[in-house]
Amino acid sequence: MLQSTSRLAIKICGLSTPDTVGAAMRGGATHLGFVHFPKSPRHVEADQLRALAAPVPAHIERVAVLVDPSDEILTELSATQALTALQLHGKESPERAAAIRQRFTIPVWKAISVKTRADIDAAKAYNGAADFLLFDAKTPEGAALPGGMGLRFDWTLLRGAPLSTPWGLSGGLGIDNVAEAIRITGAPLVDVSSGVESAPGIKSVDKIMAFCNAASS
């Protein structure tokens, strides 16, 4: 869950190796994301997630990224006792998000796919159902993955949006544009995945460190 602080929060998502987890922590990331979705090149199994999260101190959040997960998958991940939040990145309805939140008693994030201002306005349906909203670029129809493709949306769409649920920005962020994204949107949290990779699913220690530095500058 996003801590109430004026400090910018940084989430490095799609981590799958101990060295990149270590780089994210050294860089000052406040949130670490672990993808549990077999179609993704960033997928980690539950036991791998547990091992990766084991050395992470309590003040750093550990977020599982899921796409329309079943209760069985959620039960398996909850049993790892490694997570502080669940990020829903599929077509989960507000009712489904609320049900997961209630059953598993863990903060729930909902990724909101954005192409137009109407997409941002529609996110209010998750008020009270999700603890946190993550605005990401809408992927093309029929795309294999719902995120992590390096796409961005028009950040000015977030200006003046009446958001009552805590939120963050994702989609197409990288070392060269994260400062601009923060300036335009005032995002309290920025989330990066493909923007710190040398190849799909392969995180770069150097890029992670550079992204954290650029976001914090």
From TrEMBL:
Reactions it catalyzes: N-(5-phospho-beta-D-ribosyl)anthranilate = 1-(2-carboxyphenylamino)-1-deoxy-D-ribulose 5-phosphate
Classification via Pfam families: PRAI
Principal EC category: isomerase
Pathway named in the protein's UniProt entry: Amino-acid biosynthesis; L-tryptophan biosynthesis; L-tryptophan from chorismate: step 3/5
E.C. code: 5.3.1.24
Gene3D superfamilies: Aldolase class I
GO MF annotations in UniProt: phosphoribosylanthranilate isomerase activity
GO terms under biological process: L-tryptophan biosynthetic process
InterPro entries: Aldolase_TIM (IPR013785), PRAI_dom (IPR001240), RibuloseP-bd_barrel (IPR011060), TrpF_fam (IPR044643)
Swiss-Prot/TrEMBL keywords: Amino-acid biosynthesis, Aromatic amino acid biosynthesis, Isomerase, Tryptophan biosynthesis
Keyword presence, Amino-acid biosynthesis: yes
Residues annotated as domain N-(5'phosphoribosyl) anthranilate isomerase (PRAI): 10-213
Family: Belongs to the TrpF family.
NCBIfam families per UniProt: PRK01222.1-1 (NF002295)
Protein name (record): N-(5'-phosphoribosyl)anthranilate isomerase
Natural source organism: Sphingobium chungbukense
Gene name of the encoded protein: trpF
